[in-house]
């Protein structure tokens, strides 16, 4: 993918979309094409989890399947916390989203004339459409091509959104601050759509790419938006686990096609933990591996189990998983001859910015889509392959947006800065390195009250110790309409690192706080000191600023006080 050099940026857009994954790209395409859209992305355009999606995209579109079955499976996996209305909306709109992708040219695998479907864990029916084991890449390539053709969309790459720009009354959004090409500038827009993906980089072991630092959720929190269910993080059971190798995902579809999970002794242990064995819900399989390693391994933190593909016919492996074969080969593993060493890794964040069915957050003019949002479709645990579907279905809601473009770009004062932040950077870099281990050990697959409290103390101490640093103060005191010119690219890189670290620290604090508060186990949140699911906890956790409270089910839109899609002047 070529690096796009952005021409000079317009200081005013009708809509700014932050993030160029499946959610951001599709939203940009669905927005009415008379609107001027700025698509901001912090790396190259195709860098994000979407591009790495393997297994596929779920849609009950086969004549033998039915959206109601998809709804039931999603609700079951969500462990009592899905919003049934949101799930119904998603599964019923799946067909339209898939038809649009096919029409745009996404080459899903076919069986004869029909789209091929595979089975994944906790789906009662084969309904996962795929393009070999690089489904995400197939979707992103097509969406990118379409976005680049559109005259009304300006792509601004290698640009980091820092914060929202609120009106002086703080009651609606009027743009963002942006770090781009050695400058910090303020871009005005009537609407901001956050599509910044997940936050897997919070954890020491993750399948997520480097860009997944939860920026959008942190940005929305600082602006006062309501966040929801932050304690629910999904750990994928099978990430490649080999010294020196990345935690490359070994798709759930591999188990769907018949691979076995085995331990050091060749024992197919998953059935000891759940009757569905390898095809039990994802959180169950991850915990089964975690507990099995606790029981059997000398050092469970370094240990792994194996995924054995040999029960699948070799031709089928070649057809379905060419990328997995290649990546494993690069790391010295021949999947036809030997099982792949795997262990769980942080994969998907169910929590996020609370949004209604129209993708609107609690702040007027602020929308959130994709993994950054909490729409209610995943509850406490996402069903495999529902994420790409959610990205598309909720992004397409932006086609209904109404905007009164009454904002005028204002002139900027230009300030040149030449700071030396090297001492500050040492402190920040150290914390950036330590944070993921702290989160993995305290808020990983198995959590416990005392550990969560201790981690919370530590993170608060880190946040306080950074608060007075010059570089942190510099970022905290940026003024709207003041354009800052930095002295070098190195300074830009430093600010990017600082802003990501501060975001991760804020989110770590919020996840730990929510996880310590929820004294039960449910879906992706497992507490060894409260291993049972408790009826009285069948509620959402809402967060706004430092306030945290329970919300009964089904109160979504009311709670968010969202009355209409029209953006007020
Ligand atoms: P992303 O695709 O992650 O995109 C986020 C974008 O935001 C990126 O462009 C990033 O650069 C940008 N960004 C972030 N912060 C900023 C900032 N501050 N300023 C500017 N830009 C910013 N789901 C499925 O349904 N099926 C699958 O098969 C599947 N497989 C997966 C495999 C892997 C390895 C992973 C990691 C996830 C998988 N998932 C799958 C989950 C799914 O891919 C993601 O949840 C989904 O793609 C998220 O899309 P998104 O558009 O919300 O975010
Ligand atoms: C996978 O291919 O296992 C990932 C699917 C998903 O995260 O939905």
What does the model show?
The chain contains 17 helices and 23 strands. Among the domains are: 20-232 and 348-400, FAD/NAD(P)-binding domain, CATH 3.50.50.60; 233-347, Succinate dehydrogenase/fumarate reductase flavoprotein, catalytic domain (Flavocytochrome C3, Chain A, domain 1). The strands form five sheets. Strands 1, 2, 8, 9, 10, 11, 18, 20 and 21 form a nine-stranded mixed β-sheet that branches. Mean pLDDT is 93; it is low at 1-6 and 562-569. It has 569 residues and is of the alpha/beta class. Helices cover 34% and strands 19% of the residues. Flavin-adenine dinucleotide (FAD) is lined by residues 18-24, 40-43, 47-50, 52-57, 135-136, 160-161, 195-198, 207-208, 211-212, 215, 249, 348, 370-372, 385-388, 391.
Features:
single chain, alpha/beta, FAD/NAD(P)-binding domain, Flavocytochrome C3, Chain A, domain 1, 19% strand
Write a brief structural summary.
With 569 residues, the chain is an alpha/beta fold. It has helices spanning 22-30, 49-52, 67-77, 84-92, 94-104, 135-149, 215-222, 252-256, 282-296, 314-320, 322-330, 386-395, 422-443, 449-467, 470-476, 489-517, 556-560; strands at 12-18, 37-40, 57-58, 110-111, 114-115, 117-118, 128-129, 153-156, 159-166, 173-180, 183-194, 227-228, 233-240, 260-262, 305-308, 340-349, 352-354, 366-368, 373-374, 413-417, 482-486, 540-544, 547-551. Among the domains are: 20-232 and 348-400, FAD/NAD(P)-binding domain (3-Layer(bba) Sandwich); 233-347, Succinate dehydrogenase/fumarate reductase flavoprotein, catalytic domain (Flavocytochrome C3, Chain A, domain 1).
């Amino acid at each position: 993918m070529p690096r796009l050099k952005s021409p000079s940026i317009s200081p005013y857009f009708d809509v700014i979309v932050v993030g160029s994954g499946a959610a951001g790209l599709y939203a940009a395409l669905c927005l009415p094409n008379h609107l001027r859209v700025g698509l901001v992305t912090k790396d190259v355009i195709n860098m994000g989890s979407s591009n790495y999606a393997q297994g596929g995209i779920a849609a009950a579109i086969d004549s033998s399947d039915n959206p109601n079955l998809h709804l039931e499976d999603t609700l079951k996996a969500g462990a009592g916390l899905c919003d049934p209305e949101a799930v119904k909306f998603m599964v019923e709109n799946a067909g339209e989203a898939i038809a649009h992708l096919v029409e745009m040219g996404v080459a899903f695998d076919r069986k004869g004339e029909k789209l091929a479907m595979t089975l994944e864990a906790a789906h009662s029916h084969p309904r996962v459409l795929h393009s070999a084991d690089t489904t995400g890449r197939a979707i992103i390539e097509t969406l990118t091509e379409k976005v680049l053709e559109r005259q009304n969309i300006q792509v601004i790459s290698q640009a980091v959104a820092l914060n929202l720009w609120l009106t002086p009354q703080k009651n609606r959004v009027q743009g963002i601050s942006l770090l781009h090409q050695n400058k910090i500038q303020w871009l005005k827009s009537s609407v901001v759509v956050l599509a910044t993906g997940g936050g897997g980089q919070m954890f020491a072991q993750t399948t997520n790419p480097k860009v997944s630092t939860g920026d959008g959720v942190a940005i929305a929190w600082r602006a006062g938006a309501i966040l929801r269910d932050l304690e629910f993080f999904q750990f994928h059971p099978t990430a490649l686990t080999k010294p020196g190798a990345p935690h490359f995902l070994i798709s759930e579809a591999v188990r769907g096609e018949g691979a076995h999970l085995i331990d050091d002794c060749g024992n197919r242990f998953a059935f000891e933990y759940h009757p569905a064995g390898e095809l039990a819900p994802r959180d169950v399989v991850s915990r089964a591996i975690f507990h099995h390693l606790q029981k059997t391994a000398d050092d469970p933190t370094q240990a792994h189990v194996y995924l054995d593909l040999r029960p699948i016919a070799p031709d089928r492996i070649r057809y379905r998983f060419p990328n997995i074969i290649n990546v494993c080969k690069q790391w010295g593993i021949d999947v036809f001859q030997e099982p792949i060493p795997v262990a769980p890794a942080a994969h998907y964040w169910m929590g996020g910015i609370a949004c209604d069915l129209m993708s609107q957050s609690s702040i007027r003019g602020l929308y959130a889509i994709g993994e950054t949002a909490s729409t209610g479709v995943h509850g406490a645990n996402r069903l495999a392959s529902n994420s790409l579907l959610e990205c598309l279905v909720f992004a397409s809601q932006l086609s209904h947006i109404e905007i009164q473009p009454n904002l005028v770009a204002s002139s900027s004062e230009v300030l040149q800065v030449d700071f030396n932040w090297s001492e500050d950077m040492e402190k920040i870099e150290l914390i950036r390195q330590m944070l993921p281990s702290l989160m993995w050990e305290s808020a990983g697959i198995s959590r416990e009250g005392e550990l969560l409290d201790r981690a919370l103390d530590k993170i608060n101490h880190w946040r306080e110790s950074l608060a007075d640093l010059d570089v942190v103060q510099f970022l905290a005191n940026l003024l709207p309409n003041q354009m800052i010119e930095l002295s070098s690219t190195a300074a830009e890189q430093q600010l990017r690192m600082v802003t990501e670290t501060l975001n991760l620290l804020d989110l770590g604090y919020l996840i730990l706080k929510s996880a310590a508060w929820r004294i039960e186990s449910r879906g992706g949140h497992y507490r060894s000191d409260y291993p049972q699911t408790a009826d009285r906890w069948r509620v959402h956790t809402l967060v706004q600023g430092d306030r945290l409270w329970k919300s009964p089910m089904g109160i979504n839109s009311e709670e968010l006080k969202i009355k209409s899609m029209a953006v007020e002047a």
